[in-house]
Amino acid sequence: MAAASVVPVAYQQGLVPAVPDWLNKGDNAWQMISAALVGMQGMPGLVILYAGLVKKKWALNSAFMALYAFAAVMPCWVLWGYKMSFGHKLLPLWGKAGLAVSQDYLIPQALLPSTQYKNVTSAIQPLYPTATMVFFQYAFAAVTVILLAGAVLARMSIKAWMAFVPLWITFSYTVGAYSIWGGGFLFQWGVMDYSGGYVVHLASGAAGFTAAYWVGPRLKEDREEFPPNNLLLALTGAGILWMGWTGFNGGDPFAANVDSSLAVLNTHICAATSLLAWTCLDVIFFKKPSVIGAIQGMITGLVCITPGAGLVQSWAALLMGILSGTIPWYTMMCLSRQIPLVRDVDDTLGVLHTHAVAGTLGGALTGLFAHPDLSSMFLAVPNSEGAFYGSHGGVQFLKQLVGASFIIGWNVLVTSIILQVIKLVIPLRMTHEELDIGDNAAHGEEAYALAGKGQREKSTEYRLNEYSFGGAEP
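Below the sequence we write its predicted structure tokens.
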């Protein structure tokens, strides 16, 4: 993950060919394709998913929040964020900040962080330049903060959001990435997170719910009646998200190898099974299959398999899909209306359930089902096996829970601090007038050249009581 810090003498002398001996063109091509697939999950995937799922008057603002975040992460990433996440140790949970923009750094072969630490052996070695790794990891960072935005749509000030994104990436995301992926204390301790169930999804879910608490709820009328303005558009975004996950999980062995193939297959097994499980529960309890519910079930399946995509066998991926389509369904559809804190905090798109709950579930199940033979293909830490295998499995399950607790605690704390600091300078919420108007007040533009604020025509009006996001009472 971390790149070489010592430039070869031959390169300094200008003698390195365009295709050095260590470069594997197939691995490099797959890694760049994977990075592009992950990037497309954010832009355009989440951009148009958010635009379709929200009320018409918020379509443009929601899309822009995602678009802005995707762009704003890049300069932060190459100027300091990448090395804070995958560079040399500053603290047990943080890397040293530094530039990742020079050819002396980006062209040499990428190295994994395990090369920096004693008693840790590298199971894999990237056979491509650091530039490829920087781009791949940027896409993950960008998607994470866009997922977080789903909790604060339809009321957070766009100016406050513009300040929040670089601060959160710097002080929250980089800590989780370094601690688990970059060689930090959780990495060395053996916490398993194959492709971001903790670093991306649990972090975005915990931070998003925290941000929703501090920003406050939507207008009462928006919270009680929030019809999606374009479900076909939302399905398009969801489809890009689903197919993009091929690179999200398939790229994390850092090679086009057998583990990559297994990770891709497991990803789609779990996603499809979870979608079906969620849809079946909707039919059983609400008598109709819901498109929104299918999207939510798809997402929870993708999130749940992410911590163990290349570490578990496919039968386990099938079981994880069943659980990810039922447990988050229960927390969203039942517990969210019974627990006062969850009910009162207005988490617009339910990221607490789809990302925090599903991410924690996936990490815990990885601690049960991770197969030692598959783990040895990927992990650089010894004794990485699930509780179903070997004598160390029970300890691994506990490690997974501790790792989740750290990610939750850090994101709740740091997200709260960041928002309180921003609040001293910029209001976190739009004014009541802006909240009433929506996109036109926030941007001077509207998504559709149609009259009204996104209300349904009386002849087609119906209530989405089952999917009243944010815990509002139906």
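The chain has a mean pLDDT of 90.
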